[in-house]
Amino acid sequence: MVGTPRGARPTLTGIYYLLAENQLSRWHMIPSTELWHFYKGAPLELIIYHTETRHLQKHILGNNLEAGQNLQVIVPGNRPAVEDPSCAPPFAGDGDF
User: Which residue numbers delimit the DUF985 domain (predicted)?
Assistant: First the structure.
């Protein structure tokens, strides 16, 4: 558990997130660092926007490491990104961490 102004919260949360073929996610930004994991299925493009440089960084989550895909990608806190994975401190849905 970790202490917050609103009381104790879990140190880490994990979310299984599935996008069906041709389904898109929305841009989001949370204060916590997110760790994306690839488990199975088609590769997924994850885009991070670096606000200070106005640069888009693209990653491919997948299991074909020889093709440059990644099993995990870290999205630093306070960076706009396009999905929703594991994060620490945990995402609570109310904007408070």
Answer: 6-78
